[in-house]
Amino acid sequence: MANHRIDRVGMEIKREVNEILQKKVRDPRVQDVTITDVQMLGDLSAAKVYYTIHSTLASDNQKAQIGLEKATGTIKRELGKNLTMYKIPDLTFVKDESIEYGNKIDQMLRNLNKD
């Protein structure tokens, strides 16, 4: 039963952080960032927020990471206003590599069929 609550809180934080990044954060480094997943600790004290960016340039990825780290305070403050939680979890932003990995596997399968 507790696992269901953790998943619900993670989904709610994902939705809220996406909205906050679109409407409240004015940093141009995070304009193309999309939150893909949120993994919560069991006691809801910390959350890993997975994000993706539309650009494939390494410099843009690094700028997005720095922008998200700078915006963490604003995001937590807005989460505190929007969510009814006793304590807002600490946020850690991690780049989601699953999309690039999936594209790589897909390309390998296409190349295999050509041979």
Automatic annotation (TrEMBL):
Subcellular location(s) per record: Cytoplasm
Listed transmembrane segments: none
Gene3D superfamilies: 3.30.300.20
Family: Belongs to the RbfA family.
Protein name as catalogued: Ribosome-binding factor A
NCBIfam families per the UniProt record, alphabetical: rbfA (TIGR00082)
Keywords: Cytoplasm, Ribosome biogenesis
Description of how the protein assembles with itself and partners: Monomer. Binds 30S ribosomal subunits, but not 50S ribosomal subunits or 70S ribosomes.
Organism of this sequence: Streptococcus saliviloxodontae
PANTHER family given in the database record: RIBOSOME-BINDING FACTOR A, CHLOROPLASTIC-RELATED
Record's keyword annotation contains Cytoplasm: yes
Segment forming the signal sequence: none
Pfam families on file: RBFA
UniProt superkingdom: Bacteria
